[in-house]
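Annotated sample (chain length 496).
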Amino acid sequence: MSDVTLDNLLARLAGHGKGSSDDPWSSLAAATPQHTRETEVPKKKAGGDGVDGVLDRLNSLAGGTPKKSPRATIDPNGFLPIEPETFLDAELTDSQVEALILKYLLARGDASGRDIADQIKLPFRPVEELLRQMKQDQLVGHRGAAPMNDYVFQLSELGRERARRLSEICTYYGAAPVALQDYIESVAAQSLVNQHPTREDLTAAFHDLLINPRMMSRLGPAINSGRGLFLYGAPGNGKTSIAERVTRAFGKYIWVPRAIGVDGDIIRLYDPCNHELAPEEEQIGLLDHSKIDKRWVRIARPTIVVGGELTMDNLEISLSIGTGISEAPLQLKSNCGTLVIDDFGRQRMSTDELLNRWIVPLEKRYDYLNLPGGKKIQVPFDQLIIFSTNLEPKDLVDDAFLRRIPYKIEVVDPALDEFENLFKLVAPKMGIEFKPDVFEHLVERHYRRTGRPMRCCHPRDLLLQVKNFCNFNGIAAEMTNDTMDFAVENYFTIME
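Output written by the structure step:
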């Protein structure tokens, strides 16, 4: 078929049924995703061969726009990073990718093109084109053939020398970094502010804890706000346990980049110590697993808990002098999740230091970080921060700081019926039968007579003492007056 005939046919097809209800192109346009951020790819020559060429000419005749490559999309399952088709789509230069390849081959010795693409988490086709150019530039050579029309590559002397110079600056040769702006937009799409947990969500999140209705009614609005929260009260009543489970009330998973690139600096964000990897299914919504950008990983919404070890250095980008790789601070790693400051007021840094560092981010929801080179960047400060303390909040910080933490919730001692329910909950888990008469003996002798306050941790701790006592003496674990008296004597000896 000649070009003239094809053009006539396409023109008639593009103009078919305009204004009618059965127009197939109108139906297709109506199904276009509404939350897709797109990046243009280089324009192809008009009238190119193949399906792409036909579609381009059809779009041109129908007055449509050229095709674009989406970088990320939002489907019913949440934010999804789409695999880039070119380095330009990934906001990477050939030089950046070349540096990663050279350093990888320096460490590995040799690797096939597909192994290299898998290492830096980029599609094989643009990596293959770059390897071809690197061979022409005499940076790499073929060591042999590999399956699927691939080659095994190794460094030339020129490539080895360049790789050594690059490694002296930064040894990183992992996944290609994601642009900072892409990360910022991913946080906005997955923000806790977009989540609105219900009472049912909270009940499910705290299913393994006994939370009284009054406490639940106070926690609900605080968690819904996605802002800051003070949990205070006597030790042993479950402040940390509550804080650690809050994230369960929100969506299960988020996507985070393995590393972020800013003006040549690489900031490692994904942290196996603080992030729980959640491998994605083979089919995600309408997208096949193979179409996901491998530079991102799916993790459970993070819950990061820090205690007395927290220092100011943990809140800034840290550079490893030996490797040249930067590590993201805790607040960046906790974005779209929960950051728990446990035992607030007992950190190695003073509360005033933390106040001065976070007073603006808590208000504005963004933070400023200094890169190793001195440049300052703006990043999201988007997490639920929970300050857990045994002390009175007003004794720790001033009113200006308290105003930026809108919810202050006291975790009170359990009532008698709640205390009994805790024993009933914990005892079977330890293989011990709950006995009401022994419980009455415990309460009357060791709590009412002494005026000792009940704490939520006591049932677990006392029954553990009973279990260990019985195991040592070779008898079945059992709640008796004698075993409970022994447990109380051991547990409270120096706590009075």
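Annotation: The longest strand covers residues 69-75.
Annotation: The chain has a mean pLDDT of 84.
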